[in-house]
Amino acid sequence: MTHILSADIGGTTCKLGIFDESLNILEKWEISTNKTGEGILENIYDSFVVHLNRKNLDINSMIGMGIGVPGPIDFENGVVNGAVNLNWTGNIEVRKIMQKYFDGPIYVDNDANVATLGEKFKGAGQNESEVVCMTLGTGVGGGIVANNVLLHGHNGSGAEIGHFLVDQKKRFKCNCGMKGCLETVASATGVVNLVHHYYSNMSLKSSLHDHIMNKNVSAKDVFDAAKNDDEFSQFIIDKVAGYIAYAASVISVMTNPKYIIIGGGVSNAGDILIQYIEKHYKNMTFRPAQDDTHIVVAKLGNDAGIIGAAGLIKTYVIERENK
Amino acid sequence: MTHILSADIGGTTCKLGIFDESLNILEKWEISTNKTGEGILENIYDSFVVHLNRKNLDINSMIGMGIGVPGPIDFENGVVNGAVNLNWTGNIEVRKIMQKYFDGPIYVDNDANVATLGEKFKGAGQNESEVVCMTLGTGVGGGIVANNVLLHGHNGSGAEIGHFLVDQKKRFKCNCGMKGCLETVASATGVVNLVHHYYSNMSLKSSLHDHIMNKNVSAKDVFDAAKNDDEFSQFIIDKVAGYIAYAASVISVMTNPKYIIIGGGVSNAGDILIQYIEKHYKNMTFRPAQDDTHIVVAKLGNDAGIIGAAGLIKTYVIERENK
């Protein structure tokens, strides 16, 4: 019992990996995502068999298998309730299906949670027991590690950090059906929302003027322009950072993590974003809670998912046995 | 090894109790709080010895001792960093001091956390693994139980629910030094803040007019008047409830508890307050997170503390051994 199998299922590709007990990668590779129902789970198993065979490893000697899926999860039962990007509808019993092929322990969690666990164990979380990750991509996802384990909440809505009201004016509609969620002002989409909202109402001119007028400006354009001293873009980043900092200030008095990790596409902006966030965070956060709390950029990029999925086995199988 | 000793240290009295393994009370009593330094801990031990002796129970056969203290705690080490109401300044090593007298396991936590644990095990929390308590008294305290254990955070600021910004206009100064915290608009003090703020700016007359003008109106007055159809008081409760509901909506997407328990003096308002909170909560909370989440009034009153302090021993000694 020496290795962990890990799969991070995405809409286009599945990332697969074989890990040792300390979550070091022995091998990682990708297969295309088969979107005709549950076939992808059999494909994943078959691919593990082939790769293990090449290494003279026996699938029956594996410690367990961790699986990340882009959809809402019933963690206890390993069931996914719909995954739009995989064309999965209704309840898909991922653990039960995989158990037809694989005998060992299987843990399934959503993509934001496994990415958080990856960053906790091997990334910006420095293996601390209290870590929160905000993933700022097309939407805003999150993961909370407290007392060394992920929080799922009573119905799986734990760490749905993108969906609480931060824009009191409720200017933009969210995909969740509400208005004013963090996601509407802090995701890549949110950055663009704010650009269009403010540009027409302000006298500041921007090097992005034509992009803005043609409605093809991206969050990346805004961060690049800000780095090149575009005042309007800096103004927008300051706004975005204010909302992210507010979320961080709330998180700090809720679960009080040592590391608040900013991941996802928006985090590619890097230091400039963190500097703006820190300025607001320091001013708006309960003093004792901000003491020795660090806001940092995610480190693992696309590998966070497979490392974290393997981390499920480390958390729920290896560390439990060692208790 | 059949019984648990429990102490809830307050500014005026210490509540003491002897519990069985299922947290049923065998006996509870009070002693006055000796405020001359650490003497109270020896007093507590002596009182336990006397009461155990009467029951023919041996202090050396106790499973453990749980202690609640009104001050910030380093939970891991059982150290309190100052407790104003006890005249304790600096770091007081409560566990270490008590270990001079008592040999068994000792766990120490703050009053808000032990009250939460009490409500979780024997009160409004119905023994669920995901429970949050907001204690609305002179200030606002909180406790978060997730994955069946209390969250302390990396530096003990977990569940400091009273101290994040909810009043965007930052109208009232908080004891923590910031402005606009939940505590400034949802505690008993907060209710009075809002009364004075709105009464001078509104045409609504109130049966509390004289009290308001004489600056001796209390939160209880406002809730009583609201129940007697005083429109201004109902307006104030609606405002207070809106802020509490906002906090509940944030909590729901952070740790997603099954029960959000409202305790403390303000919760004596009872059903009328819960009704106002629920109305706002339903409108402002991420739909999946509010599903099967219940906002309820605390049940245990002043006993929550000793039950929860005993609950520390159940959580960290009894349940760990049974794992």
From TrEMBL, chains A, B:
This protein's UniProt keywords: ATP-binding, Kinase, Nucleotide-binding, Transferase
GO molecular function: ATP binding; glucokinase activity
One Gene Ontology cellular component annotation held by this UniProt entry: cytoplasm
Keyword hit for Membrane: no
Protein's UniProt keywords contain Transmembrane helix: no
Alphabetical list of PANTHER family matching this protein: BIFUNCTIONAL UDP-N-ACETYLGLUCOSAMINE 2-EPIMERASE_N-ACETYLMANNOSAMINE KINASE (PTHR18964:SF149), ROK (REPRESSOR, ORF, KINASE) FAMILY (PTHR18964)
Pfam families: ROK
BP GO terms, sorted: glycolytic process
Similarity remark: Belongs to the ROK (NagC/XylR) family.
Listed name of the protein: Glucokinase
EC number, as in UniProt: 2.7.1.2
Organism in which the protein naturally occurs: Mammaliicoccus stepanovicii
InterPro entries per the UniProt record, alphabetical: ATPase_NBD, ROK, ROK_cs, ROK_glcA
